Amino acid sequence: MSYENTVIKERLASLRSVMEREGIDFYMMPTSDFHNSEYSADFFKVREYFCGFDGSNGTLVVSKDFAGMWTDGRYFIQAENQMKGTGVELFKMMNPGVPTIEEYLFANMKEGQCLGFDGRVISTSIGESLEKKLSAKKVTLKIDKDLAEEVWTDRPALPLHDMYVLSDELCGKSFAQKLSEVRDAMKKFGTGAYLLSKLDDICWLTNLRGNDVECNPVALAYAYITMDKFSLFVQEGEVTSEVKEYCDKVGIELRDYHSVMEFVGDSSFDSDVLYDKRNTNFLTFKTLLKKAQEGKVALKNEKDPTELMKAQKNKTEIANIREVYLKDSAKLTEFIYWVKKNVGKIPMTEYSAAMKLDSMRAELPGYIELSFPTISAYNANAAMAHYEATEDNCAEVKAEGMLLVDSGATYMGGTTDVTRTIVVGAISDEIKRHYTATVAGMLSLANATFLEGCTGRNVDILARGPLWDMGIDYNHGTGHGIGYILNVHEGPQNIRWRFAPGANEAPLLEGMIVSDEPGVYIQDSHGIRIENILEVVTDKENEYGKFLKFAHLTYAPIDLEAIDTKYMKPEHVKLLNEYHKMVYDRVAPLIEDAEVKAWLKEATREVQ
């Protein structure tokens, strides 16, 4: 007898009733909040509510007699298990013969039908693409209704947490200084108004922080900026007396978060409006567009000027980041020692190891929260680049093979990210070969010198070179930017060799922070990733231009038990020894335990 998930089926039946009443033939539910944040709070998990699948990526499409869920290869097995008996069909993205959502809708929607979705959780690029593709069938879009509101009666509340103020001393620049720079950028674009929707940009600009997105210290907000006014749209319940006093003092006008659409739609703008289509949801965009079509204003779609300002850290931010990374590196060093000392002697799982590291970091002064959920992956599990162990589903860590740990935290003074792959027992010669090449690639990139104007694409090959020499590659970017007491993933800078049309490609500039994380992933066998965070600094300036280079921010030992120097070029051996000398010199003074310090001395010894 086949299993039937009556709960999900009843929810879908209720949704279809609302769709029929609203005249919606197909309804789409993605994985996103109103600002396309990396993590979505429980309030936004509409797709999960209607199909049962709770992975971090997926889009559900429902019609009168169909329900389909699209997700990527990380989640095929999980989605199949969680959607058993629901009647929801799994569409395995990128697999041969599997249509995209756009292709499916075009093939299956009839002329004149209506596609509905909550326009606040759909990006403008996706919304425009659907609109263009389906216009040939005269399909209409209904984007101002969140149909889950009526069906999901016990829905969790919208995230609501107290905001807080960072001092000008901690930020290095006051809100007034930053706002002046933003208004200068607006003048260059010829606009008198600027609608900013990106949460970390808003928090950076205002020197405010929040706790509305998991692992990102941001508040749900919009900002509307003119030459004489700054309006901040936030939830009233998040405004503490401290925040209110600060906003009054610096000239931030507080408005209700939920009134932003009405404000944009009804306000009589008397100047052109700057916005960034990449960071603006579809409903906001269409509301702005309607104003423009009325002849009231012109819209200027440009990259948020705040993004680049935020990415180039000022001297105060850099000084604090350097200090935070040293303390964080020392804590990771103590954790590596703990793993090696205890593996095979005490019960240890991927999950318990992650919890141990998380608790160690939480002891550091100024700790706020993790910068992302710790990835702790043992042996073959590490071959999945974004594997996440849970208390109920995790592998035992035995005294054999390797444990990959990718982790970080946000502190008052910086946001960290680091990966180390730790040897916990016997490993094969092939693994040593892969590990050694990964380390060589990481150190080669970190040692780069390049002319100002180079982007991540110009230097990516330095990290991949030792692996490409072996005919191996890794299927992810080499580096991403990192925020200051903000999101662990930040643009516009990144390091990758391949750029799709429309992808961000920005010059690497002094003051930027970027990760350096090559890896090897062999399915059903092992995964290796070594990640350091680098600061872009000036090297020299001469008649050829300004030369830049990288400086390490991460100082944690690389596991010499997995290094075989016969697979290294002499220059890579030299770089490894130089790096390890810096690790010991900078981290040892922060370690109080004599046993750990003695181990670190051995762990950072010179190799020949």
Helix-and-strand structural type: alpha+beta
Query: Helical residue percent?
Result: 25-40%
Number of strands: 28
Number of domains: 3
- Kindly identify the CATH topology of the largest domain: Creatine Amidinohydrolase
CATH architectural type of the largest domain: Alpha-Beta Complex
The CATH class of the largest domain? Alpha Beta
Counting DSSP H or I runs of 4 or more residues, the number of helices is 19
Return residue spans where pLDDT drops below 50 for at least 5 consecutive residues: none
Major sheet summary line: 6 strands, mixed
What does this structure look like?
The chain is an alpha+beta fold and 608 residues long. The protein has three domains: 146 residues, Creatinase/prolidase N-terminal domain (Creatine Amidinohydrolase, Chain A, domain 1); 140 residues, 3-Layer(aba) Sandwich (Creatine Amidinohydrolase, Chain A, domain 1); 292 residues, Alpha-Beta Complex (Creatine Amidinohydrolase), CATH 3.90.230.10. Helices cover 36% and strands 20% of the residues. The protein is built from 19 helices and 28 strands. It has a six-stranded mixed beta sheet with strand order 4-3-2-1-5-6. The chain has a six-stranded mixed beta sheet with strand order 12-11-10-8-13-14, sandwiched between helices. Strands 21-28-27-24 form a four-stranded antiparallel beta sheet. β13, α12 and β14 form a beta-alpha-beta unit. α16 packs antiparallel against α17. The protein is globular. The termini are far apart. The mean pLDDT is 95.
